[in-house]
# Entry
Amino acid sequence: MVEEGPVATGTAASRTVPLSRGLSTKLLLLTIVFVIAAEILIVLPSISGYRLRWLDEKLSTAAAVSVVLLENEPLSLSREAQDEVLRAIGAKAIAVRDAGVSTLLVVAEMPPEVDEHVDLENTGTMMAVTDAIDTMLFGGDRILRVFGRVGDSTKEYELLLPDHKLRGAMIAYSRSVVLFSLLISLITAAPLFWAINRIIIGPVRGMTRSILAFSDQPDDPGRIIVPENRSDEIGIAERELASMQARLQKMLAEQKHLADLGLAVSKINHDMRNLLSSVQLMSDRLRSVKDPTVQAFAPKLVRALDRAVSYSEGVLAYGRTQEAAPMRRRIRLRQLVDDVHGLLGIDPDSGIEFLNEVDPAFEIDADPEQLFRVLTNLSRNAVQAMGADADTALVRRVTLDAERAGSVARIRVSDTGPGLSQKALENLFVAFRASTRIGGIGLGLAIAQELARAHGGSLELVESKGGSTVFCVTIPDQPVRLEDARALRKGA
# Structure
């Protein structure tokens, strides 16, 4: 039985955000939560205020009745009249306190106990809210004693009444307040939700779609986001995303071009290597020719062919960034520079001088073939730069010299050419970009820098102006291992 592997994270399905986890859904849920919180903050104080107003109205009505009863004899009212007064107010008893003396004016039946005392004059906001919640949740069968002054009267009126009508009125009022507040909140939240979704969520969703679409086909110019004309953070993000996508698309196109070029070069390199090998075999026969001229040029030709074969074999290594590690030896640099001069093949009629100012005793610790390639690339660039000038009065000179600072060797390659252009300076060591010469491919400096770094050194442009361009190759000697130094000391 074949087991199914995990779904790749790069598939379109795995990158689709479900509606339940989308930004719009989260925004809607947060809006609902905030609206409910606002409702609670609005409704609770409103209900508590309604409760106090309802009780105050009952107490005011009882006070008005009390004034009339005080003008007459309260006990002169019949039982039926007292019950009718209490039913109209919804109370069990009415009393008045004046100068510390309490007088019971009307009473239907005295309850056995009072469940809650409500002082309308000294009820704070928090206490009013707490009492309102308590009445809403647990009320309905309690007896309330409500007391306080009414208007400017000096008398204090008291009222005993059940709270079931109060609770019913509060429930009806709260229902109306909740519905009205919810309507107002929805009217306010809907435009707010639309505005946030239009200004923020929508553009963010658009950028997300653009990123996903671009990742599927990064070579399609139509997948690059078109930024809106906005000056806020969203506009900046869209413009930066569009710029980044354009740069990435250009870079991917260049890499594809280089990959195609590498494939073509590998095919050409295969046939070129075979041709050079055949020429190399034929050149070996020149050594048997006794002609002095042939004997003088044959070694140089053989060395040139050997290097050509080596370069041909190393082309693919550069394309794979797998340049061989340097095989370092002690080299007489002056002789190596003479070989560079011989390979350049400078036309004597061109007026270009080649000066080898390296001390004959100067030695350097490096790979001879790789250092030869570095100096050849630098020298050929100098010769080609000066060869473009047709004025015979110009001084055209390539000079190579060297110096040592402790264990570090420095080789200077200078010329009297026109200097590097601004474009060449901006892409100095970038493969396929550094050349501004017609027909140049821009690999020389990139290869030279890579080989210098492989030695633990560097290649730097020291100066570039009209009449003077100077490159410096710095190569440190190999560090001596402690074990080798001890062995050498013991042998001595």
The CA atoms of residues 328 and 366 lie 4 Å apart. Residues 19-187 form one domain. The longest strand covers residues 396-405. The first helix runs from residue 23 to 71.
